[in-house]
Structure formats: C-alpha cells, structure tokens
Amino acid sequence: MKTLAIIGSGHLGQQIAHYALSDKHYDAVVFFDDFSAEKEVNAIPVLGKTNAIEAAFQSQQFDELLIGIGYKHLAVRKEMFDRFSEQIPFGTIVHSSTWVDSSATIESGCIIYPGCIIDAKVIISANNLLNLGCTVAHDTKIGKHCFLSPRVAVAGFVIIEEQSIVGINATIIDRIKIAAKTQIGGAAVVIKSIDKSGLYVGNPAKFIR
Description:
Layout: E1 3-7, H1 11-22, E2 28-32, E3 40-41, E4 44-45, H2 53-58, E5 64-67, H3 74-84, E6 93-94, E7 99-100, E8 105-106, E9 111-112, E10 117-118, E11 123-124, E12 129-130, E13 135-136, E14 141-142, E15 147-148, E16 153-154, E17 159-160, E18 165-166, E19 171-172, E20 177-178, E21 183-184, E22 189-190, E23 199-201, E24 206-207
Parallel strand pairs: 1-2, 1-5, 6-9, 7-10, 8-11, 9-12, 10-13, 11-14, 12-15, 13-16, 14-17, 15-18, 16-19, 17-20, 18-21, 19-22, 21-23
Antiparallel strand pairs: 3-4, 23-24
C-alpha cells in the first residue's frame, strides 16, 4: 500500500488528492496543513501541521510527499520543497490522459493534470504544476516551482525560469526566455523574451508592474 502526503488541504490539495486516488497513483492520501484545525477533509485525514511531517514519515505513515499550495504562494512552494526534499521522497503525478514523449523529463514533485501534451526533449523541472490541457512543445524547459494554468500553450525552445506563473489560455511563441518570478496574465500572447520579472498581460504581452 502506497500513501501520499499532501501539504495543504485546501481546494488545490483536494484536487491533487482526487487525481492521486481516482487515477490510481496511490492507495491512500493524508494531508498536512498549517492553517486548518480539521481532523479530516473529504474523508482524508489531516495528520497535523508541517512540523509533524518528518516524524510521520519516520513512523511510516506515508511514502511520498507533494505540495498542494497554489500559484499565489510560489515562494512557499519553493520553501517547502527545499525544506523537505533532502529527507523525504517527493512523488510525481502524471495523469493517465496526458501524453508524454519518451524523451521528455519530468522531475520529482510535479503534478500534471489531465489532457496535457509534453513533447520531445521537454524538461519539466521539480515541483511544477501543469493544470488541465497544457501543451509544452519540444526542447522547452520549465524551471522549478512554476504554475501553468489551464490550456497554456508553450512553443518549442522556450525557457521559463523558476517561480513563474502562466495564466489561463496564455500562448508563448518559440525561442523565448522568461525571467524568474514572472507572471503572464490570462490569454496573454508572449512574442518576445522577458528579462525583467513582473506582471505581463495582453496581446502582445506588455509589462504592467
């Protein structure tokens, strides 16, 4: 029996738990949450706060860890991954309806939602979340701790640096580099490289703040 622990029992954590169980990646799920007093969420036990994770792993209450913290808190996602990744194995969920080329690399801690396409020689670095229906074309690299919203389209030879957010239906054309900690707004079209972190929206995408 293989048990997944998820940091965060909110809506995102609950979605991840659903895919972990319904797509048969894990046999059981538990939560850890610093901001909930609940003992269980959707019949899934909350074992305590994040300071209880290491002891719970040592006592074999779970096997692998994932982070269910959303795009508004990417720095916390990074902090949690860095805090636990040396001692505790991180899982990976790639939904069975997603197509992944055999030459692609998906690192630990990643969650790939249904209907995504991961093309040849793509690298999805650690602790990324790709939401419903994302397409990542060949030879692209997504840096650590990023969040791609539903139906993002990323062309070939793109580099998205770590802790970046790409909004719903955004499009990034080929051979572009996007600086770390950048936020691309929903439906934005990125047609040139972004070397200054910030919020970019529109078609073509322009710096807002």
